[in-house]
Amino acid sequence: MAEANDNHDYVGATPPSKAVRTGPSPLYRLLQALASLRFTAILFVLTLIIVFFGTLAQKRDSLNTVLDEYFYCWLAWVDLNLISDFTQVFLKGVRLYGTDEDPGRLRIPFPGGFTIGWVMVVNLVAAHIVRFKLTWKRAGIWVLHAGVIVLLGGEFIRANYAIEDQMRLSEGQSANYLYSLDKSELVFLRPAGSGSDEVVSLPGQMIENAVGALPISHPELPFDVEVVQYMKNTSDPARPISGPVPVKFGEKNLATAGLGLAVRLNAEKEISSIKGDRKINLPGCYVTLREKSNGKAIGTYLFGTAIDDSQPVGPDGEWRAAFRLKRTYLPYSIQAIKVERINWPNTDKPKEFKSTVRLENPTTQESREVLIEMNRPLRYEGRTYYQSTMDTGGPANLTGFQVVQNPGSHIPYVACTLITLGMAFHFLLKLIDFLNRRARR
Amino acid sequence: MRLRTPGPSRPALRRLLVIFVAAVVLLAGCKPPSEITKYTAPHEADESGPPPDVPEDPVTGERILGLIVPAPPERGELQWWFFKMRGRPQAVGRRVKPLEAFAASLKMPADEGMPKYDLPSGWVHTQASNQFALVSIRTGHRYTPLPMDVSKAGGELAANVNRWRDQVGLKELSADEIPGSLREITIGDGTKAYWVDVSGPGRSKPPFAKP
Amino acid sequence: MKARVWFPVGIVALAAFLVIREAVPPSPSKGEMDLNAFGQIPVQYQGRYMPIDTVARHHLLVISVGKETYATAKERDPNRKMEPAIRWLLEVMSAKRAALDYEVVRIDSPDVRQFLKLTNRPGWWRYSFTEVAEAFDKRQDDVQKILSKARQDQPLTDVERAILTTRGHLTTILSIQLLALPGLIPDPDNPGHWLSPREVDERNQGQFELQAAREATESVNRRLWEKPEEMDRARRQMGEEKFDAMVEQIKKEAAQKRLRELIDEHRKDFAPQSAAFHKILDAYDAGKAEDFNAAVREYHETYVGPLKGTDAGRTNLEYFLNRFDPFFLCQWMYVGVMVLAALWWLTGARSMNNAATILGFFALAVHTLALVLRVIVSEKPPVTNLYSSAVFIGWGGLILCLALDLYYRNGLGNFTGGLIGMGTMLIARFLESNGDTMPRVEAVLNTNFWLSSHVTCVTLGYMATFVAGQIAAFYIIAGFFTKTQAGDRGRTVYGMIYGVTCFAALLSFVGTVLGGFWADDSWGRFWGWDPKENGAVLVVIWNVLNLHLRWAGLVKARGFAIMAVLGNVVTAWSWFGTNQLGIGLHAYGFDDKLATGCAVYWLSQFLIVGLALVPLRFWASFAPTTATK
């Protein structure tokens, strides 16, 4: 049989020999348990399972849903029936349960990505406290494991703090704001003179949470907002163009003022799978606005991201309101000068996506042209603009940028360098050791 | 090999671990909260149009409002310019005043070409809404457009007016009765034109009928 | 003594002879058409410049599924020969009648054969264009239904998709016959864009249309008025309308025919290059070898020579690669390496292993040459698609295994290297029929730096995991069935698996991380949880898990070997399996056969693991012998 390993000075799961005084404190015993290599192995296996199922889950659910349900959460719900999707692809259509159209789910609770990640960090730190001596021989492992902790920490930061927005421009158009694909806001606008508006923004999440509850009241809001109905999505992915439908006479209608008297939005199923169509949820709501002083209802209005325009609200015509994808205004503007898609000759296959834009920043007096193309983004003032989509099929060329703000964007580079150096150093030591032993034989 | 001696020789590191775990737990709950914000943003012009038309009871029928302006005859046949809106009575009724302003600014072209006019506020050009119109003008909110179709065609006046009467469900009038049922107006360049405003019980339009 | 030297040298000399023979083209004997010269004519197809030979091979590979040659006659015909694809292309392009009767359209699906009511040809499964076209004509209505379904973006069943694929093959053959592909003649208005001969004709036919119509009408009228009585009789029989319609039709067809004639006559004026090409085709059609060779030579001198030094001037290298087909040669050399290593174990003659090593190095040299040529021709780093990843894994695996064998001298390295080499060459051959092996890359992949670093590194990581897994499989099988893994020899093999796994962990980690850096550079997300990314991280974690299990003392040799074999499963999932899911950025390469192939491979590895789980006392190498206990 193969010999026991003789070139390591630690063994994980073996209980300490009786000669060693076991620590009196129960905290230390806890530390030992946390540091166990067996525990590490279990954590690795849990990671393999969650990554594998999180991969299969993307066949039906959108990436955002999978992130919320598997990776960026503390408690995950793993759908065991995804195995049926797996066998369907690889075993010629055989399924364990359900059909392709109606697969069915069998969800079990499972540690989520955050949990596994942080427990791994605890395990790693405990192991170093309990077992590892700080010697040259172990230097590689210290560096390597430090890198792992940094990597996991960096991903955690990114999961919670990174913001990804969009900017979409047609050739010639200029914009000074970004919009989010999954956050929305209810805004109240009123002119503030010299070509600007005063904007009060209510996050869509607050509206969703306030359905049927007391009206939302806030000193900045011009009215109290009472949410009558909230629809997570009002667009039917099967229809190419969706929007409000006309209200028929005599139809029951929640709206008592504004656009909602003439048109209606229907609640539709949440769009949760990316079948290559890039469709997003377009939420909508029916909201009763009330006077702040006495709570008298001014009217019940229909709002939705599927409705392009703002509506006048309130008795004076001073305020307008709209429900839109959450905007982030920038102190600078970007104008699309030229939008090009270059195909390989005689084919439809894209070779390059290039957008020439003009960046104008009145505060820094900058005005320059920049080229943004696939694989070569623009980095400006903490945000990075990536060429994300391009549509050259319609009357005007449209270019779409993915704009990312990630406080932790440098962390993976640091972490991976540490891990690589640590690994290479450690394996090099082992190799030298091994060659020496073979030479001695 | 044996484990390092445990016990109080490593209190600092143990405390560190406790702090570390506590920090993790705190950090875990930490997510930027959503809150109400106020800021200033550049003004965006509102292009949606006048307030939308509320739905009306179908029993009130349909109404056609429009102008018929004579044009120079072609190949011996009378030619007319048609400016036509069609919808529910009250919604169309709201267009009477703007149409008067429109007519007052209307000038016929000297030769081939489109007539010239000033668009009342809130009215915008759109693509032709059907195959017979040369251009359409949206007279209402984006979601309740009530387009006015601009077209040019030939034929006798009575025939064209009766076609419109038929579309709202009114019975035809004879050629003598027709001028009496219309109102004569003067448009911007002095040409005499007809103001048509007919209401009736309504009739659904067959797919390929002329406007 | 002598045999130890002469035997390996002899083997390599034999291999070298066979290889060189393939490399040097036979010069055509007098009276034969020089197809080599024709094959080297550069064309533009699917976005890149290639010799027309590649177009021929590519189409025949796709239509005939896996064959680059075609049969000149039916199965039982004694005159039946297999001829190369370039000849098939010439046959079709020169619009020979017989060209459409060659049995080249392969229909594997019994449902499609049933739909078209074609007779079974077991093992061969190929039908001629004429046969299949006639069969499709009879099912026009059903085919139209499928087409409208496809146009409305509705999901199609597998059979419907297979029917449309076969129909697509017919369309391709027709396009070739009509000279609608590939791009041959540079567009004067659009540099970098080459037009097909048909496009050139269509652009220029306007100037002849009036003349053709006029002349056709005159000639038709003349013919009709030759026999006025017959005309009258026909008119009375058919009726005015029908007669006039018939005359119109005749005039139209005559005009088209006259137009073609006029174009043919005047082509040398408005499109001399196209005319030169037509001259080649005409000579082929007439069967005149001397005229053919002269026309080809003229074409080369006038139109190909000036392209030297430009993008389009490197096609002769690719032509050489096509003809040489180095990977096919390598495949057989790798089999030879395996056999020699196995012979050493069986006979104990050291010269066998030496021969295996030297042959392995020779094969590696040929393999390297092929990779270098591919890089020069495609102007891209070595791995850009599934095909090139397979070829690269074979190369990397061979280097690693030869190094292992040079160090350990136990023949296992050679054997494993030969096995991996042969396996990857077979996979590559299968992937060939999916299309161009050096396609232009999508915009998002169009960055040489990341393609050379991330993709090669992650591929090498897969390669190393496979090598570890193969050695482990060998350990299990040999340990179970033979006594060879007892004692030191088994320990050495365990050491090999361990060492390669460490190497694999490092390589796969670095490769995966480079992919993350690329993603961060391209769209701001270091880790996007894409299925392929997830697959790569599974490979990394699996290797690392295995190492930790060993360090924890939780596994010994057998357990480590089991984990390494399961590493094969994980790597196959990451390499091919994730593509089959059809999601995310890496959703290319879906193939029913690949999916089944994955499943079969996984099953084979699970069987090996099952074998390993049998208690050690039943293993031949580790059974307790009465003497030892």
Structural summary, described in words:
The complex is a heterotrimer of chains A (441), B (211) and C (629). In chain A, helix 6 runs antiparallel to helix 8. Chain A contains 8 helices and 17 strands. Chain A is 29% helix and 32% strand. In chain A, the strands form 5 sheets. In chain A, strands 4, 5, 11, 12, 13 and 14 form a 6-stranded antiparallel β-sheet that branches. A 4-stranded antiparallel β-sheet of chain A has the order 3-17-16-15, with no helix packed on it. Chain A has a 3-stranded antiparallel β-sheet with strand order 6-9-10, with no helix packed on it. Helix content of chain B is 24%, strand content 27%. By secondary structure, chain B is α+β, with helices and mostly antiparallel strands. Chain B is built from 5 helices and 8 strands. Chain B has helices spanning 11-29, 89-93, 96-105, 157-167, 177-181, and strands spanning 37-42, 62-74, 77-87, 124-126, 135-138, 148-154, 183-186, 192-200. Chain B has a 7-stranded antiparallel β-sheet with strand order 4-5-6-3-2-8-7, with helices on both faces. In chain B, a hairpin with an 8-residue loop joins strand 4 and strand 5. Chain C is mainly α and 629 residues long. Chain C contains 24 helices and 8 strands. Chain C has helices at 2-23, 35-39, 52-64, 85-93, 110-116, 129-138, 140-151, 158-177, 197-204, 206-226, 228-238, 240-270, 272-286, 289-304, 315-324, 326-347, 350-378, 386-408, 412-432, 448-481, 487-523, 531-551, 557-580, 592-613, and strands at residues 42-45, 48-51, 69-71, 82-84, 103-106, 126-128, 185-186, 194-195. In chain C, a hairpin with a 2-residue loop joins strand 1 (42-45) and strand 2. The longest helix of chain C is centred in the C-terminal third of the chain and has 37 residues, at 487-523. Mean pLDDT of chain C is 87; it is low at 584-589. Chains in contact: A-B, A-C. At the A-B interface, helix 1, helix 5, helix 6, strand 4 and strand 5 of A face helix 1 and strand 1 of B. Strand 5 of chain A pairs antiparallel with strand 1 (37-42) of chain B.
